[in-house]
């Protein structure tokens, strides 16, 4: 694979041409240019996960990706710990489907808790086998052997020693392991030996420097957008100005004056390609297309939530219930109801998506920053009518893969074009495509109802969310029906209907939690198709449920922390809330504060809590509200976070910190705009996100250490609490409840004036 000059190098150079072959120092992602799977992988074999070369360097094969969570450092820590080797002697092959077993995608924060633990168990199994080999070679009982830096020695006679390299360097373990017969996130493998106890840790629990940061900071990290292959063409997709329109005539002569530019028109799939990227950009701008009539009649941004309220329900699921809510609410002495609205949001990745495909000899290699490379194999295989074993994904870091963004669409487009043209093709989206056409995080209307008995105790609780499906297109890109290319080429659509409920361990005598799905605004090739956005259902659901918890606490004249503790029974739930309050210095009192309506500039604090799988998070936000302008200043966040065993404390703090910043952006700024015909949010002006001119709060992160507990996820758990915590803090400061995100100054000022 030939890599040409990177953007950063080009800008900083003075005309010299630099040609380099590079790959990340933490992941040998592009070690082979074979167009199909380059490594025979068997999930029930140790060699599929761990290898030791002739120099004693350990390679771990990680079938997920690192989308910025620091897994490229934390996973080697887990392997180094179990093998008793220095961390610098562990390298990671990551996200290459030709070299790694399918461990699923970067979803549900399973990078450490599932895939990482699989590799940790495999490293422990390799250590056991190496000790057995050393015992035989040295003639020493296995129980008398010790390991230091990859060298096994007799604890009674240290002169008797043998290195890992001497025992097995460059050879296969050829050893079966226990496999649960599943692939993806649920894959589980184990050996016949125990992993280390926390008391014996030397590497786990430390914070070595992240391996990925130097390349990102200094611009030396090769990313998906930097890939250049011999004979490669550059492509731009042609999209309609009105959603649902399809090309019915294309005037190829309109780009005849652009060197090398040509049109690719297959069914409703339309693109231009050229040898030089700028010529592809020019061709996309000049190409004359006659589009079909289309009248999507979208409800528009301001009419969206009323549309959701009135839309027919195509699926209703009560996902959790206990007792009998209908009977409980009849017994209530007082009923409280609340409704909260969350907007449609874009992934708004830092840079638009880019994918490269190389179709040759009946197989295809794709270079992508997709979140789920193994699933991308199946989606591309279906598009190209290939068996999956003839497709290989080489994952490379990109400009963001927060949930199901547009990376999979760009990769699929490139694959279709490469097969059609018989040459490698690089598809780079433009900014307007990235925001307008990426899969969206769904808008929702969240309704809650509580029944209180005469003493003010909650006896009945209901939470129902009404929204578009979060699986209108699947999150995995594993089917042709889930990418734009598949839609445009006429593949049968396979939407699924799903949302989610607020998962927390509040205990009420009678409760009912569920969701309702409304039809999509457009079925095929829609700019409004919905899928996973980072923390797929956290922000919209928790904004509703945790704001309402605060609303009930206020209605019962109860301190918000005490109110939650009253209905939380699990010790880890309670600890998260209690520890956050203690670290913040929480003053117990009901909200709003006594002087809430008197000051022009008011300060308040609010709390929100969630349990997500086995991660427990409580967030306190302190804000300053300017009544005259409607501006909210976040002053301080305190986040108590419990993930069980902590692998790398510094990285964990970084991940939580960046989530809270991202959650702040989605709380204060982000709302997709659209009219009756099309998405109108196409850049940072029409889809604003948090930039440096916004005052960030002080962020205090309190890690709750539980080394005896299994590690759980942290990559997306905290951000979902930001809207509710901030909204609750605004209520505490002003006595006004904000019921719609984002909290723009105009919207806040209107709410304050209305009150």
What features would you highlight for this structure?
Aldehyde Oxidoreductase, domain 4, 27% helix, 18 helices, disordered N terminus, seven-stranded mixed β-sheet
What does this entry look like structurally?
The protein is of the alpha+beta class and 755 residues long. It folds into 3 domains: 26-221, 2-Layer Sandwich (Aldehyde Oxidoreductase, domain 4); 225-294 and 348-436, 2-Layer Sandwich (Aldehyde Oxidoreductase, domain 4); 554-754, 2-Layer Sandwich (Aldehyde Oxidoreductase, domain 4). 27% of the residues lie in helices and 22% in strands. The protein contains 18 helices and 26 strands. A 7-stranded mixed sheet has the order 11-12-9-19-16-17-18, sandwiched between helices. The chain has a 5-stranded mixed sheet with strand order 14-22-21-20-15, with helices on both faces. A hairpin with a 2-residue loop joins strand 4 (145-148) and strand 5 (151-154). The relative contact order is 0.11.
Summarize this structure briefly.
With 755 residues, the chain is an alpha+beta fold. It contains 18 helices and 26 strands.
Spatial extent as radius of gyration = 27 Å
Task: Tell me the CATH topology of the largest domain.
Answer: Aldehyde Oxidoreductase, domain 4
Strand content of the residues, in percent?
15-25%
CATH-defined superfamily of the largest domain? Aldehyde oxidase/xanthine dehydrogenase, molybdopterin binding domain
Mean pLDDT: 92
Give the strand order of the largest sheet, numbering strands 1, 2, ... along the chain. Answer: 11-12-9-19-16-17-18
Kindly name the structural category: alpha+beta
Give the helix level as a range of percent: 25-40%
User: CATH class of the largest domain, anyone?
Assistant: Alpha Beta
Number of helices: 18
Query: How many domains, in number, for the residues?
Result: 3
Specify the biggest β-sheet.
7 strands, mixed
């Amino acid at each position: 694979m030939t890599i040409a000059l990177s953007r950063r190098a080009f800008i900083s150079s003075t005309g010299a041409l630099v040609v380099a072959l590079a790959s990340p120092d933490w992941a040998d992602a592009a070690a082979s240019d074979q167009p199909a799977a380059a490594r025979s992988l068997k999930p029930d074999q140790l060699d599929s996960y761990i290898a030791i070369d002739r120099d004693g360097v350990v390679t771990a094969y990680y079938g997920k990706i690192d989308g910025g969570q620091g897994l490229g450092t934390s996973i080697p820590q887990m392997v180094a710990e179990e093998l008793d080797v220095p961390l610098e002697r562990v390298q990671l092959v990551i996200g290459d489907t030709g070299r790694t077993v399918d461990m699923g995608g970067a979803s549900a924060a399973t990078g450490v808790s599932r895939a990482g633990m699989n590799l940790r168990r495999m490293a422990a199994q390799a250590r056991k086998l190496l000790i057995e080999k050393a015992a035989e070679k040295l003639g020493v009982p296995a129980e008398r052997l010790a390991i230091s830096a990859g060298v096994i020695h007799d604890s009674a006679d240290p002169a008797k020693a043998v290195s890992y390299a001497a025992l097995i360097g460059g050879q296969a373990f050829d050893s079966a392991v226990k496999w649960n017969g599943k692939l993806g996130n649920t894959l589980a493998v184990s050996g016949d030996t125990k992993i280390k106890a926390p008391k014996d840790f030397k590497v786990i629990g430390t914070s070595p420097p992240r391996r990925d940061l130097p390349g990102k900071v200094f611009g030396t990290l090769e990313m998906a957008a930097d890939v250049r292959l011999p004979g490669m063409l550059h492509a731009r997709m042609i999209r309609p100005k009105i959603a649902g329109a399809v090309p019915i005539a294309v005037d190829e002569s309109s780009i005849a004056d652009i060197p090398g530019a040509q049109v690719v028109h297959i069914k409703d799939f339309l693109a231009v390609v050229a040898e030089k990227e700028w010529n592809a950009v020019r061709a996309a701008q000049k190409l004359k297309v006659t589009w079909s009539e289309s009248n999507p009649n979208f409800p528009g941004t301001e009419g969206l939530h009323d549309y959701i309220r009135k839309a027919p329900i195509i699926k209703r699921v009560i996902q959790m219930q206990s007792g009998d809510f209908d009977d409980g609410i009849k017994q209530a002495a007082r009923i409280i109801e609340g409704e909260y609205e969350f907007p449609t949001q874009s992934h708004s990745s830092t840079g638009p998506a880019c994918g490269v495909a190389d179709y040759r000899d009946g197989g295809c290699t794709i270079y992508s920053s997709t979140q789920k490379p193994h699933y991308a194999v199946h989606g591309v295989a279906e598009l190209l009518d290939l068996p999956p074993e003839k497709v290989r994904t080489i994952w490379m870091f990109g400009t963001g893969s927060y949930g199901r963004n547009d990376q999979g669409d760009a990769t699929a487009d490139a694959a279709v074009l490469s097969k059609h043209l018989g040459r490698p093709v690089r598809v780079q989206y433009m900014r307007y495509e990235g925001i307008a056409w990426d899969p969206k995080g769904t808008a929702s209307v969240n309704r809650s109802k509580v029944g209180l008995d005469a003493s003010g105790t909650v006896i009945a609780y209901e939470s129902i969310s009404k929204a578009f499906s979060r699986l209108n297109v699947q999150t995995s890109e594993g089917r042709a029906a889930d990418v734009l290319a598949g839609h445009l080429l006429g593949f049968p659509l396979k939407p699924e209907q799903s949302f989610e409920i607020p998962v927390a361990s509040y205990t009420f005598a009678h409760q009912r939690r569920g969701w309702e799905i409304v039809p999509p605004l457009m079925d095929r090739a829609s700019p409004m198709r919905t899928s996973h956005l980072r923390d797929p259902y956290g922000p919209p659901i928790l904004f509703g449920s945790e704001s309402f918890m605060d609303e009930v606490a206020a209605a019962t004249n109860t301190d918000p922390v005490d109110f939650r503790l009253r209905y939380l029974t699990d010790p880890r739930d309670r600890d998260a809330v209690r520890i956050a309050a203690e670290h913040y210095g929480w003053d117990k009192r009901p909200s709003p504060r006594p002087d809430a309506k008197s000051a022009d500039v008011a300060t308040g604090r609010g709390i929100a809590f969630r349990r997500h799988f086995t991660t427990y998070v409580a967030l306190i936000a302190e804000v300053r509200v300017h009544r005259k302008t409607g501006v909210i200043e976040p002053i301080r966040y305190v986040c108590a976070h419990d993930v069980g065993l902590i692998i790398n404390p510094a990285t964990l703090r970084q991940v939580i910190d960046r989530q809270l910043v991202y959650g702040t952006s989605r709380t204060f700024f982000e709302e997709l705009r659209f009219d009756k015909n099309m998405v109108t949010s196409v850049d940072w002006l029409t889809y604003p996100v948090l930039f440096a001119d916004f005052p960030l709060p002080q962020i205090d992160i309190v890690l709750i250490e539980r080394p005896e507990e299994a590690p759980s996820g942290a990559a997306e758990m905290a951000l979902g609490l930001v809207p509710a915590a901030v909204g609750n803090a605004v209520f505490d400061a002003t006595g006004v409840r904000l019921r719609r995100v984002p909290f723009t100054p105009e919207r806040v000022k209107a709410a304050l004036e209305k009150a």
